[in-house]
Every structure is written in C-alpha cells, then in structure tokens.
Amino acid sequence: MTEDAAVPPAPPESAPEQPEILRLEGLQVHFPIRGGLIDTLAGRAKGAVRAVDGIDLSIRRGEILALVGESGSGKTTTGRVVVKLTKQTGGRVIFDGQDVSGMWGGKALRPYRKRVQLIFQDPYETLNPKHTIGDFVEEPLLVGGRDLSREERQRRVLDALDAAGLRPAADYAARYPHELSGGQRQRVVIAGALVMDPDLVVADEPVSMLDVSIRTELLRLMLDLRKERGLTYLFITHDLAIAWVIADRIAVMYLGRIMEIGPAERVIRHPRNPYTQALVSVSPSPDPPDEEGAAKRTILVGETPDAAHVPPGCRFHPRCPLAFDRCRTEEPPLFDVGGGQQAACWLAKDGPLDLPIIDAVEAVGGVVHASGEI
Amino acid sequence: MSAATTDPAGVNGPAGPAPVVIHRQRFRGLRESLGRFSTRTDGLVGLGILLVFAVLAIAPALFVGPLETVVTATGGVLEPPSMAHVFGTDEMGRDMLNLTVHGARISMIIGLLATVITVAVGALVGIVAGYSGGRLDNALMRVTDFFLVLPTFVLAIILAPILLDIIGPEAELFGIRATLLVIVLVIGLTSWATTARVIRSQVLSIKERMFVDRARVIGSGSGRIMRVHILPNVVNLIIAQAVLTFAFAVFVETTLAFIGLGDPFAPSWGQVLNAAQSAGAPGLGAWWYIVPPAACVVLVVLAFTLLGNALDDILNPKSGSRR
Amino acid sequence: MSELDIRSNRKWPMPKQAVPGAPLLEVEDLSVRFAMRNGSVKAVDGVSFRLNDGEALGIAGESGCGKTTTALSLVRLLPANGRIRSGSVKLFGIDLVPKTEKQLARYRWREISMVFQGAMNALNPVQRVGDQIAEPIEVRLGASRAASQKRAAELLDLVGIPKQRAMAYPHQLSGGMRQRAMIAMALACDPAIVIGDEPTTALDVMVQAQILQLLEQLRRDLGLSLILITHDLSVIAETCDRVMVMYAGRVAEEGPARRVFTAPRHPYTRKLLLAFPNIHADRRTLDVIPGQPPDLRNPPPGCRFAPRCAEAMDVCREVVPPEVRFADGVRVACHLFPVSDAVAGEVPA
Q1: In this structure, are strands A200-204 and A232-237 parallel, antiparallel, or unpaired?
Q2: H or E stretch at B273
Q3: Nearest residue of A to residue B26 by CA position?
Q4: Any idea what the Cα angle at residue C154 is, between residues C152 and C155, rounded to 5°?
Q5: How many whole angstroms separate alpha carbon C326 and alpha carbon B231?
Q6: Which residue in A263, B135, C215, C281 has a CA-CA distance of 20 to 30 Å to C336?
Q7: Rg (CA), chain B
Q8: Any chain A CB within 8 A of the CB of C204?
Q9: CB atoms B20 and A85 under 8 Å
C-alpha cells in the first residue's frame, strides 16, 4: 500500500488573492548580556545576543512557509515570538490585520492563543508524564476560558485525537505518554494544537526527532489538515529537504536575518544568495554522487558565529566565497529578483544572477576554525 | 481502558454517537511504584516497624491499658524487669511498658504535626521560589537561607519559653497543650528551610521542560502551571522529604523533652528519659528506665529513614520514559 | 591505497595472533541478546559482513534495527544486560568474541575505536580537550606525558582544530569542534578501523558536510577503514563504498553503495529510499511505510518485514528468507529473490 504524499499544487485558498494572516515587520529580539558587577554598577550592558535582527515576513492564509536555518539563525526565536512565548524587543507583529505587538497578559492574549498554536519539536518532552493524553488535549480548553461543559470538552478532545489519526480516540485519551511511540506522541501534540481550532500553526521542527518512515506520515497528516481545516503553517526546520517537500515558500535565515525568501522551487533550484546556494549544495541526498557531484558542493569554512558577535556589513561575508568590498561594510537589503523571490545580497542588486560554484576553502583562503575565524 | 457510554437516556440528544467517558487509569503509576517498593527490603523493614508503632500510637490503651499515673501505679519503686512488669517500673512505680507504649502516641503526634507544617511551608516556598525566579526567588531564598543556618536546638531553646509566654501556658489545641504546640512550631520553623531548598532545585529543572512551555503557549497562568504541572512532578520528592522530616521531628522532640523543654504531663519518650535522668536512673543502674524509650526513638527514626530513602529512590522522577 | 600498502604502512606492528591473508574484519552470524524485565530481546539476529582495508561500510536502518548494537558488540561496549550469544567477530582472523576484557584491551582503541553520537556526552566536561586526546596514548600505548601531548597536538591539527583551542574545555567548543575532538580521540592510537555511531546526526547540515569531508580525507591519507552507522541514507550515499541495510535485527540488503542505492532489491530498501526527501530530485513526494517495526521480544516468524511489506507472499510469513548473493556483489534476504533464481554462475551465500 504505497501512498504517495505528493505535495499538491498550492490550493486555491492560498492564491495571491488570499489575505495575509501574519506579517512581521522589522522584528527584532535582542537578549542583553549581563555584565559583571562593575558593568552593572556603571549601568552598562555588555552587549546583546542579537537572536533576531530585523526580519520582514508575511504569510497568506492556507500557505505553508518554511523558515529554514541552522542553529543560531534565530528561526526558533522567531517562532516563539509569533506564539508569544518570547517578547520582541523591536518591530511589529500583525495578525489578521491587527497589530498584536503590544498585546500581553493572560486575559488579553486569550483570543490570540485560540487562533495561533505551536507544535513542539520533542514529542517525548512536550507531554507531562503525569497527565493522560486526554488531559493534555483538554488543557487548552480549560485554560481558554471558553466555559464549555464537560461533555462538550470531551467531545472536542476526542474529535481532535481522531483528526490527528489516533483511533479509537477514547482508547488513546486514557493512556499515559510513556505507553505511546514517538510518532503517536507527536500526533497527540498535533491534536493538542488542533483542539482550539486555530488559524495559524507554528511548527517547530515537528518531525526532526522521529524516524524517517514516521516522518512521512506526520507530514502527510499536516498537509491533510491544511486542506480540511484551512490551516496556515509557519514551518520551522533546519532540514532544507523537508522544506522542499512540504513548503509553498521558503525563507532562509542566517544569524538573525532573512537571506533569501521565495517560492520553494525558485529558492532551491535558483538560489540567489550564496548562503542558500551553499546550503542547497550540501543538503544530503540519497543518490550517490557521480564524479561531478562531489565538486558541486560548496562546503563553507568555519561555523556560524554566535549572535553576540555579528560581523559588520553583510553578516555572511566572512564565510562567503563571493564576498567583495561592499559586502564588508554595508548590509544588503532584500532585493527583488523576480518570480516572488527576494535575496539579501549585493550580487542580486541588479537582478537575478546564477551564482558560480566556487571552492569555498580556496576562496576564503584558510583552514576550518570555529566561530568564523580564519 | 474500555470506553463506556455515559448517556443511556440520550439526554444530550440523538445527534452523533453518545458521548463517551474516558476511563482514566490514574493510579497505574501508583501500582507500579508499589510493585517496585515490594522489592526493597530496607523500605519494607522500615514500613513494618512504623506500622507497629502506628498501631501502638493510635490505641495504646488496647494493649497496655490506660496511662498509669502516680495514683494508679501498679508496681514498686524502680523494680527491674520481671514477669509482672516486662520493662520494670519507674521511680513512682509505674509500669515502664505502659509508659513506653503511651509515649509512642505523643512522640508520633508531635512528629506528624511538625512534619505537616514543615512540608506545607517548605513545599510552598520551594515551588513558588523555583518557578517564579528573579527577585521573588532571591528574596525567598535569602529568608530560607537565614532559617537554614540557624542551629535547631539553640533556636528551640531560645524560642520555646518565648513562644510559651506568648501563647500562654494554659492554652490547648486539639487536646495538645501549649508546651507541645510550641515544640511543634519550633521544629516546623527550623526544618522547613531544607525542604524548601530541596523542592526548589527540583522545580528549577522541571520548569525548563517542554511541557511547561507548552502550558504557557496555550495560555496557562503561573498559578495553574504550578498546581497542575509542577506539583504532580514534585509530589514524590515531597513524600520522601516528609518521611525524613518525620524522623527528624521525633528526634528533635525527644531531645527537647530530654533537656527539660517538654511537657511533664505528656510523657513522650523524651519526657520519660528526662524523668529517668531526674530520678538518677543511670547512677542507680536502673537501665530499664532508659533503654526502652531510647530504643524506641532509635527504631522509629531508623524506620523512617529507611522508608524515606527507599521512597526517594523509587518515586524519584528520574525516568523520563525515553524510547 | 592497496591492502598491502595499508598494512605495510601501519605505524604499529600487526597483532601477534593475526592470521596472514585474513580480511581486516569479518563478522559471521552475530547474535546479541538483551535481558529485559519482561523477556529477552534478540536485538541482533544472525548478522554477517566483511570489511576490507581502506573501505567505508555504512550500516543503515531506523531506530531499533540493531545497527548500534552491532557496532557496540564489535568493541564489546554493550550495556550490562547485553550479551553476544553466538557468532564470531574476526579482526585479522583473530576472533574477539571469546576474549576476556583484559585481552580485549589490546584491540580496543588500538585496532578498533569509536566515535560516539553526541560528543558532549562522551567528553569529560572537567578535563581539557587536549588532555583527553592525549590520555589514551599515554594509557594504552604507555607513551610518556610529553610524547602523548605532542601526538595530541598533531592529531588536533589533523582534524582541523587550531592549537590554541587544545586547552579549552568541551563546553567552550562548538558542536562541530567537539565532534572533531572526538575523531581525534578515536585516532589517537592509530587504529585500523574507526566506527562512527551517528557521528553527524546532531550537527547542522553545513558542519555535517565538513565532518564528512574530514572523514573522507582521513580515510584517504591514513588508509583508515570506516564503519558508519546512521539512519541517514544520504550520509552513507556520499561517503561509503558499501552499505548494509538492517531491519529488526537482521540484514535486509548489503552491497556496493552505488548498486544498492540506484537499484535497490529488498522492498524495505526501496521504501526507505523513497521515504527520504531528495532535494536534488524533481519529485517532491514522499512514500509512507505503513505500520511499525516489530516488537523484538516477540518477533514475527519468517521475514520480519513481512507485516509491512506490500509484496509479502505466504512463504514470507513462515520461512526466514535466506541470503542470496548476486554477481554485482549485492546480498539480499528476501523471498522475492529465491536461491534458485540467483544469477547463474554465482554461489548463494
């Protein structure tokens, strides 16, 4: 029984006429580094970890936008800001036309939380080991202050479990997390997000911790749910290949900024930012490389610097094999390169340009070191 | 885990299948823990000893008759153990066995009350401080540290007469006289800090776990999170702490009574030892006056400690049930 | 390098008991059992394979298939409740299975070493990285402190850690750096075989590419043999000469990587390949493998994949499929390829 999980072409609901459901404008999250005693006395902050450093993003209803990046890129922090687990230090969050940037506090956030939910990464940790599955899925209803009767709550819980593929729902609802496999637990997490009937779901690496054969089922489930319930996803992942399979649009983040954003096919097949291109080229594939294959990989030098020491100019320039003078001093904005694709790179300023493949080690001239130092 | 319909009369209307009740196996975790407990010899021994003393404490009169007083003393003065008096008699002719068994009740009740106070305050402070963090945590911990470093006995000796003055020596609560109440208070005051610290460090690690994050994301307030998510995960630790505190409380009460801060009319084991001291029992070689109450204290403290350690090992949420 | 070159270029002499002409590593019919509270689990059930000098073998499969257990049993690092029940592990023809712990010390880390998953857990957090690399040299080879430090510095250079980082503690290094340190540790005594258990799983994709490139370079320069254990088929496709796909404790398919990946024979291999998203392919589809791996306390009779196999026949559910060897060097254990149909002229394994 092979069932193909083919990504359907963007459903009519996510056609350009669809309204925007989420927009981030200049979003910034800086975590101050507390200095020692002297610094505190002198009132000096020792600098900041610039986890998210000014990003603009918009998602239309029914769309799946993948936010792709390595560790330190700020993608998880962005997700946390959208679900209001972390407070932004700058910029705006606009949800369904309403500016929610200043909306904080339990009561004020209730209507927001009903509509925006989060699927966590670790199905083993997201469920409280002392609570049953039913408790877990019911909790948002208890907290949401909806004044539902007990029967109504139970009905919704069972509906959500059923929608997440856990049948018979009543059976699962009575169980404890340790009785379930990883894939089943993740379905429970999804059910927990569905029970409030949200509009936007932020999924933070929802399948990274699952076995390969289970991932497909979960991804299919998420796609089916989009179709059935008109959900919109902000899909956060470090795995470009998963983004390739599931996303309508992909945004690539590096050190707190968006390097490139656009329709999945364009970003993957015709990256206009050298970072994206390098990521795509090293993305592992199960096809064994032929002789030319090995040469087509752009393996970057060094590792992502930590967000407290962001390089000046284009933040990627120390590792970029195509960097030139302007890159070292001025940070490029996102340039439009056609087809709905934008790239933050001086090379993209004058329109789309197919990037040459360059041996990164030769270009940057050095041996691998940590934190980008050569 | 079977489902059962709850709506046989169709009260909720014919639409859709009848609502289903979710039978919860709430106590499965408990049954598993009991299973593991049955393999721990130390825990079982401790529990056994405690049960014996608990039974004695609940109904001492059933075993040895009412508490003997000077008036109702049945034996001669300081008689060594004999057939009639298995543990001998004290300087007023009272049967030692009788005194010892009745003493169990006082010691255990004091221990129990002190433990309740200690654990309630300690857990509350520990959970609130651990979860809140920041300034509240700092403030609470400074207070806790203050109590932590106070030497128990010194504090007891100082506080006891002061509190007694405040309460008034004639006060009585639940049939417990002022002096004993004071002891309970003193033990509580000096022990809660340890519990608070222990609970707090567990809470610190629990609050970082993802399910707490999830609770926040769906909009749970701090109060609810502490009650519904944090507390169930520290209950095991609280139980283990309570048991160990009980041991400590019995020991402290004994000591306080021994040095004369007890209630002469409530013959706890410590009080009996105090009386033995005053009567010159050691000098007179009246070992039967000293050994039974002392042995009981040792046994009870040991039993609680064994039990507490076994529980700590078993109930400790180490296993996150990884795949 | 040819086998002769590699063996003659060894830094240390061959073990005394080595059988001349024997292959580097030969595992035959290995079975490992774990004693659990409610039954015993046969995590590895009759696994055989061979590794030649300078070769890279990838062992692929999902969690619970027995690949890590297989690797751990090669160096006898199984947890307390695990035991090798039968089979042989022959290094240079010397069977390691009957050896005692003391006898094994001659081989562990000196002929076979291991790079573990999650370097943070394998590195001592209160010991400097340079010292941790020097330690096995001192302890196992009996070198002087100065000589081991010198060698450690060489190794750090070899794996691309700058000398000034040698004095750092593990938590001060990035994930990629730590993994390089682990590789340096594994190379400390110039082993013939390095086993990598999911060495790149927790790393970012760019760092993963760097580490794989490093391993490839080391293999070429040092004549190292690699056993790479991972669930990620793409990693194996890029770095390994041969691949062995395991399922539920048994070998499903094994052979040259190029052959197995381009023309997989076993239904599980085929489904597994299709379940990997491929960024370089045109398709944006993924296949589902329905069901779950079997409970190894009570595995199904016959072929263990049968319950999930779309092509299962009656015989699959009853009889364990024998291994069949093809002319292109691929071994398969599947009734779709019965012994009688083996490519003419080939002797079935």
Answers
A1: parallel
A2: helix B269-278
A3: A132
A4: 65
A5: 62
A6: C281
A7: 25
A8: yes
A9: no
Question: What distance in Å separates the CA atoms of residue A161 and residue A190, rounded to the nearest whole number?
Answer: 8
* Inter-chain residue contact B217 with A131, CB threshold 8 Å: no
Region A192-199: mean pLDDT is: 92
pLDDT of residue B323: 28
Interface test with C, best of A166, A215, A216, A306 (most C CBs within 10 A): A216
Q: Is the minimum CB–CB distance between A3 and chain C shorter than 8 Å? A: yes
- Domains of chain C, by residue range, sit at 3-111+191-341
- DSSP assignment of C264-287 equals --SHHHHHHHHTS--TTSS----B
Give the residue extent of every domain in chain B: 49-315
Q: What is the pLDDT of residue A106?
A: 79
Across the interface, whether the CB atoms of C287 and A5 are under 8 A apart is answered yes
The answer to whether residue A149 neighbours chain C at the CB level (below 8 Å) is no
* One-letter amino acid of C148: S
The pLDDT assigned to B9 comes to 36
Average pLDDT, chain A: 84
Q: Which DSSP helix (H) or strand (E) runs through B302?
A: helix B287-315
**Quick one: DSSP state of residue B225?**
I
Quick one: fold of B49-315?
MetI-like fold (1.10.3720)
Q: How far is A215 from chain B (nearest CA, A)?
A: 16
Output the pLDDT for position B109: 85
With contact defined as beta carbons under 8 Å apart, do B160 and B256 qualify?
yes
Cα distance between the two ends of chain A: 52
CA-CA distance, B205 to B203, in Å (whole number)? 5
Q: Is the ipTM of this complex over 0.90?
A: no
- CB of C285 closer than 8 Å to CB of A5: yes
Determine contact, residues C255/C84, Cβ cutoff 8 Å: no
Number of A–C residue contacts, CB under 8 Å: 146
What tokens appear for A62 in the block? 């029914």
Q: Which of A284, A288, A299 sits opposite C232 (nearest CB)?
A: A284
Domains of chain A, with CATH numbers? 12-254 (3.40.50.300), 271-372 (no CATH)
Q: Which residues pair with A250 in a beta bridge?
A: A66, A262
Residue C276 · residue A212 · CB < 8 Å: yes
- Of residues C343 and B199, the one with the higher pLDDT is B199
Show which of residues 240-279 on chain C sit within 8 Å of chain A, judged by CB atoms.
257-258, 261-262, 271-273, 275-279
Query: What does the buried/exposed string (b/e) look like for B96-114 if buried means 16 or more CB atoms within 10 Å of the residue's CB?
Result: bbbbbbbbbbbbbbbbbbb
Q: Which parts of chain B register pLDDT below 70?
A: 1-32, 169-176, 315-323
A188 contacts A127 by C-beta, under 8 angstroms: yes
**CATH topology for the C3-111+191-341 domain:** Rossmann fold (3.40.50)
Beta bridge partners of residue A20, listed in sequence order: A60
pTM (predicted TM-score): 0.81
Element (DSSP H or E) covering residue C113: strand C112-115
Do A155 and B19 lie within an 8 Å CB cutoff?
yes
C-beta atoms of B215 and A139 within 8 A: yes
Beta strand segments in chain B, E? 4-5, 20-21, 172-173, 176-177
The answer to whether B95 and B54 are in contact (CB under 8 A) is no
Q: Verify cis geometry, omega within 30 degrees of 0, for the bond prior to A168.
A: yes
Give the per-residue SS3 of A215-258.
Answer: HHHHHHHHHHHHHHHCCEEEEEECCHHHHHHHCCEEEEEECCEE
Name the residue among A137, A142, A86, A79 with its Cα closest to residue A110: A142
At B146, is the secondary structure helix, strand, or coil? helix
- The label of the residue with tokens 């004639």 reads B170
Range in A152-156, A180-184, B102-106, C36-40 the model is least confident about: C36-40
| Spatial distance between the Cα atoms of C260 and C257, rounded to a whole number of angstroms | 5
